[in-house]
Amino acid sequence: MPGQPKTLEYLWFHDSASQKDISRECIIDKSTVTSLLKCMEKLDLIRKETRPED
């Protein structure tokens, strides 16, 4: 999926990044980030967590 390598690299260095952070820093549309993260989570590449302050 386009954007996946860039997102994985960003998350490697920014472990607790928000979807907003990923969108801004990787220059990917917010809706695309949402779809991308869902796909990556299904593949067990990432684990999404809810922040108490969100």
TrEMBL record:
Annotated protein name in UniProt: Transcriptional regulators
Organism phylogeny: Bacteria, Bacillati, Bacillota, Negativicutes, Veillonellales
Domain HTH marR-type, first and last residues per copy: 4-54
Organism domain of life: Bacteria
GO molecular function: DNA-binding transcription factor activity
The species this protein was found in: Megasphaera elsdenii DSM 20460
